[in-house]
Structures are given as structure tokens and as C-alpha cells.
Fold each of these.
Amino acid sequence: MASHAVNEMAQKAAGLGAAALPRPGRVASNRAARKTASMPSPSASRSQQPAAPGVAASAVATEAPASTAAPPRQDEYDLGATTLTTWLLKQELKGTIDSEFAVVLSSIALACKQIASLVGRAGISNLTGLAGEENVQGEAQKKLDVVSNTVFSNCLRSTGRTGIIASEEEEFPVFVEETFSGNYVVVFDPLDGSSNIDAGISVGSIFGAYLPSEECSLEDAEDGETLMNNCVLNVCQPGKMLKAAGYCLYSTSTVLVLSVGDGVFGFTLDPLIGEFVMSHPYMQVPESGKIYSFNEGNYDMWDDDVKAYIDSLKKPEKWEGKPYSSRYIGALVGDFHRTMLYGGIYGYPGATNAPNGKLRLLYECAPMSFLAEQAGGMGSTGKERVLDIDPTAVHQRVPLFIGSKKEVEYLESFTKGK
Ligand SMILES: O=P(O)(O)OC[C@H]1O[C@](O)(COP(=O)(O)O)[C@@H](O)[C@@H]1O
């Protein structure tokens, strides 16, 4: 079933007008025509940003301030809680982000709200099952993979502040023609863990946002090919350059977790008012936790050092008589969210059939590692810090071990330097 047919179904399900869903994936062709258009140059926009110039987002965990209590209620209609909107405003006032970036993050929150409602009603709106097409990774796309990608792309485009978007579901980064300032670069996995959809088990969305690269301006692209190269270069930035990262969990509740480089905050969607309300201020991943989350079905294909590590977790005598517990949802967002709250480690090692594992650096491993570090945890390939890796391709895969600091360090004691 062609993707636009799936979109039509989503339109019906989401009650959106036909015009609202432009065809995703329009790339460079219109660029030459717009060459003359007086778009602000990426470098100009960067200097206007109150960003910490040239410094990668702080990887140091941010301590919670003395009081994270909600502000006093003004009256009975005062939510008495911090919503995502008011939190973004506070970040702007603090100069951590600017108004244009706040618009981009709000558009991502809107996309997550839409996806939450589509996921919640998938079984009764004919949105379960396959879309009949494969994505660039050779994976059979679920209908909701395609729909979530359209929803995310639409929301980002509608801001006029995103210059380039790159999705797990799109082979190439997309140059956003509608942009008129900010030119932020946004990478995303619109629906992570989609193999869980039809069974109604947790899934999620993952995203990361960068400033446009100064080294390769979109302005100077003479033709479509150069533009595409510049788009790819803009997207392929190391995780330590992230300006923000986050995920949204679609499960027993819908929880949006994000960081703009100054701690990690979680917001739960209140279905009564349709707003994300702060529920997890200054998230800190526990320093250790006796929960490991690996797909042990791949055990025989792992390196010996990873096997030795996993075997060690199961030896009760090593852990005061109580071995580690195994938990695996099969959706990175769900397993990572639990790890952020309870501690422990999630891992997707390389294997003989997939030496770099399964997960994609740009829109899965780097955003999650940014969050882990902001919350006092770690993100490692087993050999190096995920955030230090310079991506060489948009859909590049790397092994991932992420979670509590002491747990990842213990893992690295098996894998590093061997
Ligand atoms: O089924 P496996 O091999 O354990 O893989 C599950 C992992 O793959 C993922 O589903 C990633 O892939 P998708 O983004 O394509 O869903 C992760 O969320 C999850 O942790």
C-alpha cells in the first residue's frame, strides 16, 4: 500500500485536511530556484543565538536546584504546575535557548501529542500492520512508521525555523524550503520500537537538534547535489554538539523527556487538557542499578568480552547472593526510560551478523547518550564515548551501552582496551 494511501488513512484517523500533509522527502530540486531568495545565512543566525559559542553542550550532569516545587497556585484554575510551555519560556528567559528554538521544541511536542493519539487508536483506525514499503535500512515499514514520519516532518516544517530534517524513515536529509530563520538541524526516529505497535506495547519517538554548521552553508550550494552534500554534512555532527535531545514514550502514560543542555526534565501528557505537565524535574539516573536490558537471543553472536560481562551479572555469589534482573521491552525508549528512573544498563552490542549492532548513531544513540550524560549517566560503544563520535553517514550504526555510570564503567572494564 503506497505511503500516500497510508497518509490518507492517517488523515481520516487524525481528521486533518488533505493540504496539511505535504509529500515528505522533497529535496534539493527547488533549491536552485530559491538560490536568490534572501534567506538568512546559517552563520548570521548562529551569531544571533545566545548559545554558548563554540562550546559543545555541557556533558556534566546538572544538579537540581534547592527547590523544584511547583510555583504557588494563583487561583483554582491555576494548574499549579509547570507545563512544557512555561518551562520553555523559563529556558528562554535564562538565555539557555532562544525564542526560535523554543518554537522548534514546541513543534516536536505537538508532533508527539499527535502520534500519541494515533498510537492509542491504531487498533481501531486501521493503523496497525505494514505499510507495504521498506525504509532505507531495508526494514518493512509499519503504517505508523510512515504516518509518524509525516506528522513529525509536518510539525517541524510548519515552524519555519528548521533548515534541515533527517529521519530514520527517509534515505536522505531533507532541505526544508519553508524555513525563514533559525535553520536548526533536527534528526529524529519518529517511531522507535515499532515492532511493538500491533501488540500494544510501549513505543516512542527520539529526536536531537543542532545549530546549522558554519563550515558548510546551504547558501553557497550551487546545485542540487552540492546542496544535498551540505545537508548531509550539516546533519552529520557529533553528539557533543547537540543543542537539545529528547524522547517521547507512548505507554501507560505519554511522557516527553528532554534536555537543552541544562539538566533533564520529564513532562507527562495530561489528556484532560492536552498539555505536557512537568512530572520529572531534574532527572538523575541512579549511579548504579541491578537491571540489565539486552536481547540475549543474540548472545552466541556477541564478542567474548560482552558474553563474559553478561555471564558475570548472573553470578549470585558476585552480587551478595542476588544476581542482576533482566528486563527487555524491545523498544529503546521504553527500556531507556526505565533505566533513567530505576538505574541499570541497556545494551545493543555488535554481533557477528551486525558488527556495529542495530541502533543508529544520529537519531537513536547520540540523543539518548546526551540525555544519559545530562542526568549523570553514560553512553558508550564499549570502546568510546558515543557523543565524541564524528558521524560518517546519516544512517550509521554503532553498538550502544547506556545507563547508570557505574554499570557502564563495569561493562567497559570488559570491553575497553581489548
Ligand atoms: O528486536 P531487537 O533486535 O532486540 O531490536 C530491538 C531494538 O531495535 C529498536 O526497535 C530500534 O529499531 P526501530 O527504531 O526501527 O524500531 C529499538 O527500539 C529496540 O531496542
Amino acid sequence: MPATSLSEYLIEKQKKLAHLNDGLVSVLVDLAEACKKTAHAVNQGALTHSLESLDSINVQGEKQQALDVISNDIFLAFADQNKHVAGLVSEELPDVYFPHHLQSDADQFPAQRYLLAFDPLDGSSNVSLNISVGSIFSVLPCPDAVQQPQAQAFLQAGKHQVCAGYAMYGFSTMLVITLGDGVDCFTLDETTDEFVLTSPEMKIPQDANEFAINMSHQRFWEPAMQRYVGECLQGVEGVRKKDFNMRWVASMVAEVHRILVRGGVFMYPTDSKIKKQGGKLRLLYEANPMSFIVEQAGGASSTAYERILDIIPDHIHQRVGVVLGAKHEVELVNAYHNR
Ligand SMILES: O=P(O)(O)OC[C@H]1O[C@](O)(COP(=O)(O)O)[C@@H](O)[C@@H]1O
Ligand SMILES: [Mg+2]
Ligand SMILES: [Mg+2]
């Protein structure tokens, strides 16, 4: 069976999906190119002194890594020349970014326009350790006839995403996307510089025996989370009557990818330490795109209290608690929290 390239895949999907118009195809093709370029920058790593931390602090109050800025610039450069991108929100920028093409042809914008929210480099704390990192993106429809979409335009519930995806920069570069018609995974063929479909229709088993959470925060968790993890740790001797394994990579892309490949549940709950800021992970460019992918693969995603894709954001850098993966595990976590 000859390998299917990303462009061949998109042509086939266009026959099936009415919303996959030429504008959205061009946005997705540019995002894939931005991921290829970022993969190259990550792979060059120490050779280009890009594994270092910078003195600059981003809008999250976090020290930026050189690769946070390099990858951010790569994504902006692609958007600057794509007329179908009306505005961007990035983890690394305080406000909405307007692509340069808007300056040149202010009143000639195409009908098919989209808003991009993205995390240019996810898992930044792993950059200098050569542990897998990635990029995460979310594509929303742009409200009609708005020349320069303000922050308000981005405050749409995640269920309105038309496309979402992530790239993972591991020993091979992978691109996982959903267009609302299942989840497909591509691998970058270094010999042809093409993304090739390698895992079509990824599915998450409804049950799991592997969980991921940063255990060092245990003393700050709510009682319901203490109970859920406690029961997993009791294993076959406890009420769950089965043993659980544990993983924590500290790169959300790697955690979600593991869950798409072999199942499990990933949790970064809102606890007493981070309650004031609402959580750790960001709704628009981490929780929403990953929740769309996970749900499209048959899993579930919540804050432990409500479905993430139903949340109407308050602001562009809003943080939320995240519990995602195997449906039955997420439902159990929700049940313990909502009881
Ligand atoms: O350092 P911690 O608390 O384990 O948090 C790890 C989490 O933080 C993140 O690194 C946050 O993302 P960024 O690296 O994009 O800021 C997630 O990828 C990961 O799941
Ligand atoms: Mg991130
Ligand atoms: Mg990041």
C-alpha cells in the first residue's frame, strides 16, 4: 500500500468534509511546514546554542527558552504570509498578533478566515534534556467581516474548533491532527521532507491501567483527586482490583501521544497551590486542542468538574485543570469531584 502524504490525505478529506475548504487546507499545510522548520531548529539544539534559557519572562511569568522564541517566530512568519489567518494567540505573546499581510491589503481579505491559537514549544523544561517536546495548535473560525479580530473573537468554546493538532519532536517528528473526523498521525520522512500517514484513525481504549500526574503536588490536591490516585496506587489489593502503572514526562504532547498509542489518563488538576491562577495548562492552546483530539479518538476530557470543550473562555491566556484520556477513568474522576 503506497504511503499517503499529508497533501494526498487532505485532498481525500476535502471530498468528505464540507468545512475543509481551500483556505483551511492552506492553513494546515503552513502549520505542517512550521512544524517541520521547528523540528529542524530543535534537532540542531546545542549546535546552534538554542538549548539555553533567555533572561526574558513571558506573559505566563515563565523564563523563556531560546527555542520558545525561535519556534514562536517560525509560526508567526508562516501566518504573516497566509491571507486566511486573521489573527493569532501564542503562549509567548501577551496580546493578539495580527499577521503582516493585513497591513498590505486591509480591505481585500478572503471569505475563508481563521484564528490560530498555539503553543509554539510545549514541554519547554525538557529542552536542554533532549526529552521530547512539541508544538500544539488550535484553529477557530474567524467571526465574519472583522478586519482585525480582537481578543474577544478568540473567546469561543473549544467545541467550535475546526481543526487541532500537535507535532512531537522525538527521535522522529510526528504530526497528529483532527478535523472533527477522527484522529490521524503522520511521520516526517526525512528523505522526502514529507509528512506520511503512519497511524490512521487512532483510538483510546475506554479503560486504562496507567495514569500520569505530577506526584510532587500531591499535598495540594483536592480530596477527590487524593482518593482517585490513592485507589490507583492501592492496585489489585484495593477497590480498583487492578494494578496501575505511572508515567510523567513533563511534556503534555508526549503524555497525550502515549495515551493515543497505548491508552491511559493524564491529569494536571487545579490544586490549592495554583487555584488562584485557575490551573497550570492554558485553555486556548493546550487544553482545547488536546481535548478535541482526545474526544475524536474516543476518549474524554474535563476539568474534573466540566467538559473542557464546553467552556467559554474569559481571556486568551486562561488556565484550567485538565483530566483527559480513557473515557471511564475521566468519568470516575468527574464522579468523585462532583459527588
Ligand atoms: O513542570 P511540571 O509541573 O511537571 O509541568 C509539566 C507541564 O508543563 C508544560 O511543560 C507546560 O507547557 P509549556 O512547556 O508549553 O509551558 C506541559 O507540557 C507539561 O505537561
Ligand atoms: Mg505547553
Ligand atoms: Mg510552550
